[in-house]
Amino acid sequence: MSFLILLRHGQSLWNLENRFTGWVDIGLAEKGETEARKAGSLIKNKKIKINYYYSSLQLRANDTLKIVQEVLNDKKEFIRAWQLNERHYGALTGLNKIETAKKIGEDKVLKFRRSWDIKPEPLSKESPYHPLNIKTYDKIPKELIPDTESLKDTHERTTKYFDEEIKEKLESNNVLISAHGNSIRSLCKNLFH
User: Fold this and answer.
1) In sequence order, what are the residues at sequence separation of 6 or more whose Cβ sits closer than 8 angstroms to the Cβ of residue 86?
2) Angle (CA) 141 115 82, round 5°
3) Is the pTM of this model over 0.90?
4) DSSP string, 73-91
5) Could you tell me the strand order of the sheet in which 175-179 lies?
6) Calpha distance 70→99 (Å, rounded)
7) Whole-number mean pLDDT of the chain?
8) CA pair distance 173, 156, nearest whole angstrom
9) Kind and range of the H or E element at 182?
10) How confident is the model at residue 168 (pLDDT cuts 50, 70, 90)?
11) Which residues are annotated as catalytic?
């Protein structure tokens, strides 16, 4: 029997500030580091040996995974894939969620966050928060970098990657994926129908 462990990154600095983070490459807050250690301890207590580790390209997911590996005393290289990145929040990126809800209305924010195929307005390519302007994403072909995404877009990229790169490994291996709320939600939708 194989195990698939889906691990959402620990609290990031922008989670702490209640900001739409998306593809901005933000590190972990102190609480996030503590959460990652706790996750590592829970896995260690289950005595599950991980054969393959995956993470998004994003710092908060990578650092969460590194802390988990430290607790597990496992220095195995892990695979980083942009397809496991968080959803791109478009023009909402960087904004405080509560202030944005007051400004444009809670219903509209909820629609952007939870509707299947509704995207926020695109983020300007000139914004320092646009992935084209963040070094982390230099190796992704520019035509694949989004300006905004719906949950459907996030689902399509994460599940395609999972089906092509990870699914087969689960036949005889234990796999841990360190990713994000929306990319993990997409994988769960796919796995549990």
Assistant:
1) 21, 22, 23, 56, 58, 154, 179, 180, 181, 182, 183
2) 20
3) yes
4) T-----EE-GGGSPPP-GG
5) 4-8, 175-179, 52-55, 79-80
6) 38
7) 97
8) 24
9) helix 181-192
10) very high
11) 9, 86
Give alpha helix (H) positions in 17-168.
30-46, 59-72, 97-104, 106-114, 151-161
Sign for the CA dihedral angle at 39, 27, 4, 87 comes to positive
- What's the distance, CA 47 to chain centroid? 25
Q: How many residues does the chain have?
A: 193
Q: How far is Cα of residue 76 from the mean position of the Cα atoms in its chain?
A: 20
Alpha-carbon gap, residue 93 to 22, rounded angstroms: 6
Angle at 134 between CA 8 and CA 111, to 5 degrees: 55
**Residue 164 DSSP code:** I
Indicate the helix (H) or strand (E) that contains 132: none
Q: What is the pLDDT of residue 118?
A: 96
What's the mean pLDDT in 151-159?
A: 98
Structure tokens at 55: 């993470």
For residues 158 and 56, the answer to whether their CB atoms sit within 8 Å is: no
Would you call 188 helix, strand, or coil by DSSP? helix
What the block records as the tokens of 68 is: 């988990």
